[in-house]
Amino acid sequence: MAKARSPALSPVQAWWLIATGIAVAAPLVPHIPPWLTIAAGLALLWRTALAWQRKPLPPRWLLVLLVAAGCAGVLWQFRTLFGQNPGVALLILLLALKYLEARTIRDGLAVVFLAFFLALAQFFYSQVIPAAIASTLGVLVATATLLALADPRDPPLATLRRAGVMLLQALPLMLLLFVLFPRVQGPLWALPRDANSARTGLSDTMAPGSISELSQSDAIAFRARFPDGVPPQRQLYWRGPVLSDFDGRAWRPLGEKPQPRLPYTEPDAGGIDYEIIIEPHNRHWLFALELPGATTAAMLATHDYQLLATEPLATRRRLAMRSYPAFHAGSDEDATVRRRAMFLPEGSNPRIRALAAQWRAQARNDDDVLLAAQTFFLRQRLLYTLMPPLLGEQTADEFLFDTKQGFCEHFANAFAVAMRTAGIPARVVTGYQGGELNPVDGWLTVRQYDAHAWTEVWLPGRGWLRIDPTAISAPTRIDLNLAAAVPASDPLPLLMRVDLAWLRDIRFRWDAVTNAWNQWVLGYSPARQRDLLRRLGMREPDWRSMTATLAVLAGLALLALTAWTLRQRRRRDPVLALWERFSHRLGRRGLARRPDEGPHDYAARIATALPQAAADMRAIADLYARLRYGPATTGVGTGLDELRRRMASFAP
Amino acid sequence: MRIAAALQEQFFSWALRGKPPEASPVTLGQRRVYVLPTRAGIGYAAVLLTMLLGSINYNLSLGYVLTFLLAALGVVAILHTFRNLVRLKVSRGRTPPAFAGEAAAFHLVLAGDSERRALRLWLPEGGTTTIDVPARDSADACLRLPTTKRGWLALPRVGIETTWPLGLIRAWAYCAPDMRCLVYPKPAAKAPPLPWGAGEHGGRRAGGQGSDDFSGLRDHHPADPPRHVAWKIAARQGDEAPLLTKQFDGAAASRIWLDWEATPGEDVETRLSVLTRWALDAHAAGLEWGLRLPERSLAPASGGEHLHAALSVLALHGQG
C-alpha cells in the first residue's frame, strides 16, 4: 500500500492551512522584526490569492531565492542564525514559504507540524494566561486542519467542533502526564545567549535617577506570603544589593566572593517565617526581609548580608525563608570593611564635609553625630519627588543645599556621604520597601515601583543599623506607599493611580488567579512535583516510581476508554430490533431468517412451512418492510406499536 | 522466498483466526484489528519529542502542557481510529458474473452500529475503494479484481483500513468472506459466423437479422435486447407506459444449435471462447438457440436466464 505520491491538496484544505498559519503566527507578531511580519503576511496573501483564483504555485527556483533572502534578512537582523529569536524568525519564514510550495497532503502535514512548533515558540516570550489561550486557539485550528487533511468533506464548523471534542477528550490524559511525567530541571544544553533577555529590575550600581526609573514600572518583582500575618509596613525592607564602593557619583558593591554560609549567627528567637516567589530577573539576587536567616535551598551569602542564588534566576523561584527584623549583625565587623565604608574621593562634597566636621566637634560619640545628621535632614525640608532636578558633580551637596528635591537614591546617597564625612562607616542598601497585600489570596505583591534605597551605618558595639533617610523627610513613603508620598502632579504607573474600588477588586482577583497560575502551572518544577506527590501519598517520588504510576494510571484510563469504545451501542433501530427478535423466536422452530433473505422471501418461506399462519406472517413482513424501507413518515411510532402487537400475537 | 511465503501464509491464517474463507457475515472483532502509526503519525511523534526537549531545556511549563496535550490527542486518535473499524460487519453482496479478462466486481455490504468514515478496502492484486458507512445502516463497497481464467473466482483476502480522523494512526484488518464470482470464458475476438448449418431447419441464411417476421408485442423483460424494444410505441406513449418488446415469428428460421463440434481448432479454451461469442451473438440477435457440448447440452431457448445458464456451463466446462 505504499503510496507513490501524496494526493494533492483540495481548495478547502488550502484554506484550512492558511487559517492555521494565521492562528499560530498572530500572537508572535510583537516579538518578531516588523519586516518579517510584513514578508510573511505578503506570502500568506499571495497564497490566498492563488488559492482564490485556483492558479498554480510559484516555481521552485523562486522559493529557493526567497528562502535565501529570508535567511539573509534574519542573519542581518540578529547577527546569527542560532538562538531563540532567530530560531523563531526562521520558523515563521519557513512556515510562510512552505505555504507557497504546499501542493500535496504531505506538504500540508509539514505546515501543521510547523504550526505546532510555533504554538510552542510563543511561550519563549510569555507564559501568562492570555498567551495560553491564544496558543490553545492555534492548536484547535491546527487540529481541525489535521482533520480536514484526512477528510475534507465536513463543513468547517463541524470540523472545528470535532477538533474541540477530541482535544477535550485528550484533557484527562494531558493532566495525568503533566502531574506525573518525571520533571527534569533544564537546561539540558547551554541556552543561547539571548534566552531570557533583559528584564526590568534593580541594577547593581546606584546613581541619581537609577531607581526613580523603576518607579514607572508596575511589573512584579516578587510575591511573599506570611502564614502568621504580614509584619507592619515599616518593617518590610527587602534587602537587595548592598553598595559600599563610592566613586563620587555612583555606588557599587564591593564584589567580594560570596560564601555558602551566613557571616553571622542566627539568633534563637524573633524569627518570622514566610514564603517568597521571585520573578526571574537574570541575577543571582534573592530578596529577603532584613536580616535573613539561612534558607533550606542551596544559596550563597555576601559578607554584607545579601542572599544570592547559586545560578542566575532565569525562572520563577520559590523559597521558604526566615528573617529576624529586630536583629543587627556586625558588631565585630572587620577593620578593612569599616575603612572601606568610610572612603570618599578627594574633594568630594565640601559643604556637607564642613557641616559634618561641625557635628563631630559638638558630639560626644557617634550616636550624637547620627542624631545631628537626622535632625539636619529633617530641617532641610527635603521634597520627595519622582521628578527631581538634574544634579551636577557634587550630588550630595547640591541635593541637600540647592535643589532639596530628590528620590530615595538621592536621600540614601546624601546620607551615606554625610555619615562618611563625619567618620562613621556607612553604606547604601538597595532593594524594595513595602508591598501590597492582596486580600483575595493573602499574598503580598512587591512591584518594581516599590524599589527603594536606604543606608546602613556602623556603630561600635551595635553593628550595622538601618537608617532610612527617606523616612525622615517622607514618612508616608514607608508607612503607606509611593503614591501617598510624592506630589500629586508626579506621573505614576497605572496600577498605583487606581483608586476606584471595583477596579482594585478586579485587579486583586486577577492577581490572585495569575499567582495561582504561576505557582501551579508555570511553577510546577521538579521540587514542587516531588512535594505534591509526597502529599498525595507517594512514599519515595523518584522518576522510577513516577513513571510506574504514570504507566499504571494511563493504562487504566486507556483500558476504560477502550472498553467504552467497544461497548456495543444499543441505540439501534427499534424496528430492526423487533424484527431480529421475531426471527430469533422462529429460529427455535428451525425457521430462523437466513442472512441474505429479505422480509418477503422469508415470509414466503414461513408461509409454506406454517400454512395456518401465512396471512399473519405476510402482514408482519409487509409492515416491517414498510417501516424499515418505506418513506419516513410521522406515523412510525404507531406503526411500531402495531408491529409489536402483531408479533406478540403471532402464534403459529 | 518459499519460507517467506510460508510465513506469510501462517501470518494470514493467524490474522484471520482460522483458514479463509470465513462464513459471512464477518464481524471484525477487536482481536483482529491492528493499529499502528502512519508515516504522518511517526512524524507527529518526532515533532512532539522535539517539543518536549525544547520545553525541558527552556523550562517552559506551558510547553509541557502543550506537548502533553498533543500527545494525549494522539492517544485519543488511536481510540477514534480503532473505533472507526472495530465491530464492522462485512457481509456478502452481489457478485455479478464477469467475462474473463474483465474485472470481476465483488460487492461487500458493510454495516456498523455507529457511523464509519473513510474506510478503504483493498485486494492484494486488485482495486481499492473508499466508502463511508452511515450509522445503523449499510453501505455497498465494490471491489474489482482482474480475471484471467474462466470458472469460479474466489474472493481473495480483503484488507480494510482506515486512518480517520487525524490521519496519524492506521487501523486495519483482514477478512476473507466466503464469496466467489463466476467468470465466463472470454468471448473470442475473431469467431466464425453463427453456425446456421447446425440448426434443425438449416439452410436459411437470415444473418441473425430474423426480424422481418414480426408477430406481436409482449411485456418488456430486462434481459431483452434493446433493439427489440418497441421504441416507437414507447415514444408515443410517454414515460409512464411500460416498455414493450417486439416478438418475431422466426422461431423456425431463427432456431440454432451452437455445437462444440462446429467450433474450429483443437484447443478447449479457444473452442469455449468461440462458443461464448456465438452465444452472445445469438442472444443479441434474439434467436432461439441451444448449446451442445460433448458431455451435456442445453435445449434451445432464448432470454437472459438461458444465456446465463449457457455461459455458466461454458465457464465450468471440465471443472466438475
Main sheet characteristics of chain A: 5 strands, antiparallel
- Estimated share of beta-strand residues of chain A: 5-15%
Mean pLDDT over the full residue set of chain B: 82
Unreliable residue runs of chain A: none
Structure characterization notes:
The complex is a heterodimer of chains A (652) and B (320). Chain A is of the alpha+beta class. In chain A, helix 1 packs antiparallel against helix 2 (34-53), helix 4 packs antiparallel against helix 5 and helix 20 (574-587) packs parallel to helix 23. Chain A has 23 helices and 16 strands. The mean pLDDT of chain A is 84. Chain B has 320 residues and is an alpha+beta fold. Chain B has 2 domains: 2-42 and 82-184, no CATH class; 196-213 and 249-315, no CATH class. Chain B contains 7 helices and 17 strands. In chain B, helix 2 (39-57) runs antiparallel to helix 3 and helix 6 packs antiparallel against helix 7 (304-315). The two termini of chain B are 33 Å apart. The chains are: A alpha+beta (652), B alpha+beta (320). Chains A and B meet through helix 5, helix 6, helix 7 and helix 19 of A and helix 2, helix 3 and strand 6 of B.
State the main characteristics:
heterodimer; A: 652 residues; alpha+beta; 5-stranded antiparallel sheet; 11% strand; B: 320 residues; 2 domains; 4-stranded antiparallel sheet; 7 helices; 17 strands; 31% helix
Set down the secondary structure blueprint.
The complex is a heterodimer of chains A (652) and B (320).
Chain A lengths: L10 H15 L8 H20 L6 H19 L5 H17 L4 H21 L3 H22 L5 H25 L39 E6 L11 E7 L1 E2 L4 E2 L19 E7 L9 E2 L9 E3 L5 E3 L7 E7 L11 H6 L9 H13 L3 H14 L3 E2 L10 H9 L1 E2 L1 H14 L4 E8 L2 E2 L6 E4 L3 E9 L3 E5 L1 H5 L1 H5 L2 H4 L8 H4 L3 H22 L3 H10 L7 H24 L7 H14 L11 H11 L4 H16 L6 H13 L4
Parallel strand pairs in A: 10-11
Antiparallel strand pairs in A: 1-5, 1-14, 2-6, 2-12, 3-4, 5-9, 7-8, 12-15, 13-14, 15-16
Helix pairs in contact in A: 1-2, 1-4, 1-5, 1-6, 2-4, 3-4, 4-5, 5-6, 6-7, 7-19, 9-10, 9-12, 11-12, 20-23, 21-22, 22-23
Chain B lengths: L1 H14 L10 E2 L6 E4 L1 H19 L3 H25 L3 E4 L5 E2 L3 E9 L4 E7 L5 E6 L4 E9 L4 E4 L3 E5 L6 E7 L4 E5 L29 E6 L11 H7 L6 E5 L2 H4 E5 L8 H17 L3 E5 L4 E5 L2 H12 L5
Parallel strand pairs in B: 4-12, 15-16
Antiparallel strand pairs in B: 1-3, 2-11, 3-5, 5-8, 6-7, 6-10, 9-12, 10-11, 13-14, 16-17
Helix pairs in contact in B: 2-3, 6-7
